[in-house]
Amino acid sequence: MKKMFWRLALILMALLISTGTGFAGSSTLDEIMAAKTLVVSTDANYAPQSFLNDKGELEGFDVSVAKEVAKRLGVKVKFITPDWDLITAGKWGKRWDLSIGSMTPTAERKNALLFTMPYYSSPAQFAVHSKNKDIKTVADLAGKTIGIASETTNERYLQKDLKIEDVTIVYQDWSAGELKNYPTDANHIEDLSLGDGLRLDAVFTSRQTLAEAIRSGCGKGCPIKMVGEPPYYEPLCFALDKSRPNSQSFVDKLNEILKSMYDDGTLVKLSEQFYGTNLIPKL
């Protein structure tokens, strides 16, 4: 009886392994290809990276990059828009496969996430209300109330604990009077636009986000202006859930696709389309 039991157990194990459902498990890339769909998380309120157009459809640089990646993988793309802190925390539980949301690969995030090679770079930028006459340089922001999006590199920079591999961070020799946290950059830009010093004295985000807000008028008027030069530039990458087993082959495939998008000029073309400038680093 025992011999019969062990024979059946060995046969069952062999069948499980041969069908890809055994202990070895299938890779993340295999699962995506089998589903024929790449599920991408992004932000619906982060123009020009990603936003809802007049038709209620997602549009933007990150959205276009995601569509191109799916096309080169040979699968469809599906977008979902979870909160940023859920994305950076990892342990996604396969609710989405990939984050294409202009994420910086900080040392802290690498505890929970895997990152691809950079696909573009972003200059950080301060801005104030257009009617402000007192804040003329970045140093004039000392002691002021500054709006930032929560769990971002901009917040870490102002808290003076930002670490980005291969990037030298030089901090300001002053501190803000108060840092006010918001869910997204669009929220603090809107508060600043309400009036000089009414809720905020300044905001700190990416230069391209501010440029888009000024260009589009924040929907109903955006009286803000940039102050000073970018204090640092950050590489931006795709992110994957580190807790999801067998993901390295997917990282390798994504890097292969990104390399091809560098080589054929696709990334530069998309950067110029949505940002009006080339933000693509040289390999």
Q: Top keywords for this entry?
A:
2 domains, 283 residues, 3-stranded antiparallel sheet, D-Maltodextrin-Binding Protein, domain 2, 9-stranded mixed sheet, globular, 9 helices, alpha/beta
How is this structure best described in words?
The chain is an alpha/beta fold. The protein folds into two domains: 25-120 and 234-275, 3-Layer(aba) Sandwich (D-Maltodextrin-Binding Protein, domain 2); 123-233, D-Maltodextrin-Binding Protein, domain 2, CATH 3.40.190. The chain contains nine helices and twelve strands. It has helices at residues 2-18, 28-35, 61-73, 84-89, 153-158, 185-193, 207-216, 248-263, 266-275; strands spanning 37-41, 45-46, 50-52, 58-59, 76-80, 98-103, 113-129, 145-149, 178-182, 202-206, 224-227, 233-241. The strands form two sheets. Strands 1, 5, 6, 7, 8, 9, 10, 11 and 12 form a nine-stranded mixed β-sheet that branches. A three-stranded antiparallel β-sheet has the order 2-3-4.
